[in-house]
Amino acid sequence: MILYLLCFILLLIGLYGVITKRDLIKIILSLAIMEYAANLFLVLFAYRKGGTYPILEEGREIAMMVDPLPQALVLTSIVIELGITAMLVALAVRLYQKYNTFDITKIRRLAG
Amino acid sequence: MVEIWLIFLLLIMIIASVVAIEVNSKLSAIITLGIVGLGTSLAFLFMQAPDLAIVQFLFEIFAIVILVRAFINPTKHQDEKSGINKFLAVCTAIVLLLIVWQSLDMLKSLPEFGNPKMDTAQYYLDHGAAETGSANLVTSIILDYRAYDTLGEVTVLFTAILGALAILRVKSKKKVEVSE
Amino acid sequence: MKEKHGMTLIVRTITRISVWLIFLYGFYIIFHGHLTPGGGFAGGVILALALLNYMLAYGREKTENWININLLHDMESASAILFLIVGILGIAISGSFLANWLSGGKLFALFSSGTIPILNIIIGIKVCAGLFFVVWTLSIFHIEEEAEE
Predict the structure, then answer these.
(1) In the prediction, which pLDDT does C21 show?
(2) pLDDT digits (tens, 9 = 90+) for C110-141
């Protein structure tokens, strides 16, 4: 329970950064924090008390292995996360090149 | 024991994330994000997920290299401050605190830490090695039982990288036209 | 001017040796993905980091001579198609998309578990080529910006 709560707070800190910050770099960093928190939340569900890693070796028992399914889901999600970060970085760099600032309030055309 | 370590790690990560969001210097913010990422990697290791720990560790390094390479220009001093809307910040903080308060019941209703529901996973654990022949059960899931997911992931990665290239390439084409 | 074309002699000499060790480690992680922790994603990033290490140490021009960037781009596109081809072969041989159409083999052997190692290698190539290509393009931008000033 306390672990879920802390993880949820981590997610909300990221959300706070995305909502209030005007610096594009800070927004990208906040988004990354949210992604970490979401991944951690999924893996927290998978842990089994006293469990061991889900990889077979000769002489190991299956009985006390942790849940491999959320681990598999998170594995793909981490990769996607990096692709998205790279794309956001590219976008931010292009915007800096055109407007010479990272402040989103000064980038007029984005305001719509 | 694991629980205490995880609480300790999560507290460090929360402090680091607050610092990463609030600090003024860009380089410090990016490096502090590294603490959050490496803390996630350690937490995966504590929760018996070595696959994820390796991947998270490497991707964190890669993300920091990309961020520093793109945003930090060593030859030029760039330290523009961008303020925040104080009213909006206070309102957001209050709303988020309300969300935390309201979500306590929801978090209590989740399965307790350490006792997961293993309906599907038990099948994978029991039959995974025999059906796929892979000793690493996580690999057997991502590349055999749920290979569709991986196909989708490959597509998303391809699209994201294509998008990044498309965004970055506009100028170099224009330049060629001008020089011609 | 000198910094733009890479780092000092010490860094270059160490990189020349260590890059191959990193490559070896990356290939090990990819090929043993079905036996030990790791797999295509982790190994691909290690390979990309090796290329990135070379690029940071030697600068862009030498890297362009060392590896064929266009080939890397083609590899990235081709690996996506290869993944699909493996899946469609599953329809042809076993009756369902992405089915494991090779025999499972012995449990702890290196050449076992059917299509899983093949898919691991494909993903490794894809992740390596894709990530390095993004960094490469970002660095092109950096140099253009400096040239403008």
Answers:
(1) 94
(2) 777 778 888 889 999 998 998 888 888 888 77
Scanning chain A, the segments in alpha helix (DSSP H) are 2-20, 24-46, 68-99, 108-111
Distance in Å from the first CA to the final CA of chain B: 68
User: Is 50 exceeded by the pLDDT of residue B180?
Assistant: no
Both structure tokens of A46: 């998978």
Q: Do B59 and A81 touch (CB under 8 A)?
A: yes
Q: Which domain holds residue C69?
A: 3-148
Q: Where are the domains of chain A?
A: 2-50+64-111
Query: Which amino acid is located at A25 in the chain?
Result: I
Q: Determine the Cα–Cα distance for residues C86 and C81; give it in Å rounded to an integer.
A: 9
Q: Which architecture characterizes domain A2-50+64-111 according to CATH?
A: Orthogonal Bundle (1.10)
- List of chains touching C (3+ CB pairs within 8 A): A, B
pLDDT tens string B58-78: 999 999 988 888 887 766 666
CB-based contact A17 B114, cutoff 8 Å: no
